[in-house]
Amino acid sequence: MKAAVLVVGATGIIGQGVVRAVIESGRPLIAVARDPDELTQLQAAYPHSDIVLLPGSIATDGESEQLALALRDLRRPIAGVVVAISNHAGRGRLLDQATEVMRLKLDENLLPHLSAARHLLPLLAETGRGGSYVLVGGPGSQKPWAGYAHRSVAAAALRMLAWALHDEARALGVRLQLLSVDAPACGEHNRLHACSHWPSVEAIGRRAIELVERGDAAEPTRAVVPFVVPSRPVAPTPTPAAAPAQETNRDVPLLTERWLQDARTLLQAMTPSNPNEVSPNDSP
User: Fold this and answer.
1) Is residue 70 part of a domain?
2) How far apart are CA 10 and CA 73, in angstroms?
3) Global pTM value
4) How far apart, in whole angstroms, are the C-alpha atoms of residue 176 and residue 153?
5) Residue 187: Cβ within 10 Å count
6) Tens-binned pLDDT, residue by residue, of the chain (284 aa)
7) Distances from the Cα of 231 to the Cαs of 24, 181, 197, 210, 237, in angstroms?
8) Cβ atoms within 10 A of the Cβ of 162, count?
9) Neighbours of 230 (CB within 10 A)
């Protein structure tokens, strides 16, 4: 039996894409989210899959500790953890809003990752399987996302947190990586007005599970793995149909003889039968 994948934030926008990728991989799923009703709906969408539902949160150290205890009680081997949590970004300039707004954004978008790592990384290390721990990050971590400055600062802080946790996780025998998605995700909530270059939640989910399965094959020690939007297949340019080749006349000698015969027949028709006979039209 395959070891399970734990998805934290399983009912969120990106979390649903990760869940779908886990189901496609054939691995059992342990789905964690705050709302029990949403978890029930998720399980109903995959009635024939091996899914364990765990209502819970990673917002604080205490909640993350309770989640870790519940996971130990399951006594199920875990191959990897994917943390795909997201909150409302909120618009506004830094200078126009109180400092408390920034504190709130860090509480929502950064500190839960730290509290989860403090309790779930040791849990993953206990299996001795060399598991993978993947954080899914949003846009704005390298350059400010216009109109969402608070979210950009939190995203940049998550990037640095991933670097630090990556080094500390290595001592536990666990690989921790941040899947950095530098564009908004396209899902059912915004598919009608999403830009063409936005990655789909399904593609993000599959990439996250690839990291769980085998890490980044090109550079397995990378703490931050940029998400690259899969290129769309380009239809080949149709090749103009070649003009049919003109058939070569392989019987040239035969045709030449026929032409000569036709010429002789024509000349004979124009020649009088009596060479001494004078045509009426001829002058005396």
Assistant:
1) yes
2) 20
3) 0.78
4) 21
5) 18
6) 789 999 999 999 999 999 999 999 999 999 999 999 999 999 999 999 999 999 999 999 999 999 999 999 999 999 999 999 976 667 888 899 999 999 999 999 999 999 999 999 999 998 777 789 999 998 888 888 777 888 899 999 999 999 999 999 999 999 999 999 987 788 776 666 667 778 889 999 999 999 998 755 555 578 999 998 766 554 555 555 554 444 444 444 544 555 556 555 555 555 555 544 444 444 33
7) 21, 15, 10, 17, 17
8) 26
9) 11
What's the token pair of residue 90? 């909120």
Assigned domain for 254 exists: no
Helices 111-126 + 61-74 axis angle, to 10: 30
| Residue 166 belongs to domain spanning | 4-226
Number of structural domains found in the chain: 1
Query: How buried is residue 185: exposed, middle or buried, by Cβ count under 10 Å (0-12/13-18/19+)?
Result: buried
Does the residue 283 lie in any domain? no
Q: Which two tokens stand for residue 152?
A: 């950009």
What's 91's domain CATH number? Answer: 3.40.50.720
How far is Cα of residue 1 from the mean position of the Cα atoms in its chain? 27
Residue from 24, 134, 130, 127 nearest 71 by CA: 127
The answer to whether residue 237 sits within a structural domain is no
